[in-house]
Amino acid sequence: MTRPGGxxxxxxxxxxxxxxxxxxxxxxxxQAIEAPKLxxxxxxxxxxxxxxxxxxxxxxxxxxxxxxxxxxxxxVTRKLLDHYGIATPMxxxxxxxxxxxxxxxxxRLAAGEAVALVSDAGTPLVSxxxxxxxxxxxxxxxxxxxxxxxxxxxxxxxVAGLPTDRFFFEGFLPAKEGQRRARIAxxxxxxxxLVLFETGPRLARALADLAEGLGAREAAICRELTKMxxxxxxxxxxxxxxxxxxxxxxxxxxxxxxxxxxxxxxxxDIAAVDDLLRRALGRASVKDAAEEVAAATxxxxxxxxxxxxxxxx
Length: 313
Prior knowledge:
Strands 5-4-6-3-7 form a five-stranded parallel sheet, sandwiched between helices. A five-stranded mixed sheet has the order 8-9-12-10-11, with helices on both faces. A two-stranded antiparallel sheet has the order 1-2. By secondary structure, the protein is of the alpha/beta class. Helix 3 (98-110) packs parallel to helix 4 (130-139), helix 6 crosses helix 7 (200-214) and helix 10 packs across helix 11 (286-297). The chain is elongated. It is built from twelve helices and twelve strands. The protein has helices spanning 57-65, 74-83, 98-110, 130-139, 152-159, 177-187, 200-214, 237-245, 263-267, 270-281, 286-297, 301-312, and strands spanning 25-28, 31-34, 41-45, 68-71, 90-92, 114-117, 144-147, 167-172, 193-198, 218-223, 231-236, 254-258. The longest helix has 15 residues, at 200-214.
């Protein structure tokens, strides 16, 4: 998700070599290392999410040994390749050209080439179109190999200080308010920590909708992970929403991690909720009854309000 940056550029060591042969090498600490040709197939290579040193030796060897690197933005991937002295050719593969670029990559794979697939940063196929290429490769009988590494979602999850035994990765919420709120209502039923991506301009509005839809849950805003200005802010959703609404839009890449619903609220079945609502509706308006039951159960106000309307009707 985040883009590589903040690193010193390293040039490959120069020497007398046969320029008719492809250069399969990478440079680490000023030492040029020859890389073996990567076996034929599709190789999914994780790259750093910010700090260029967060790359594995296996990833460098694969990028140097591939016939071609398929990437979201060649300008972004070029920073990583230049830093490690890798001269492998690149070809763009992203959501805007995937339909036309995919058959060309599959043809190269069918011809026995080794294709390394990377995203702008982090683990490929997480919030990018790579899964369609992987699916097509499997269907064509082409070997697919994963080279694990950095991931913004997992990095945020482990640094947030929230439950990690069960989590649900949502990615980006819908941009339109109505669709976003509807999706949050669906997420409210998931008994796990939630991991979301968000942008600076949308963060305050998204947090306000999350606070309304999920109730008083703990959360962490993880920004610019692994970079110089890395920041992790923790608090309940309502407080975080107010804090971010009162300041300038934050910059950089952002991951939101939200705690699961409280155990007692998760275990309370809908029949018990309806029973509480019927009693509350006998003495209060729909709005007041919904707020009362939402506060008592910890369930989202929007969900309880819809139940109250149905029972009143």
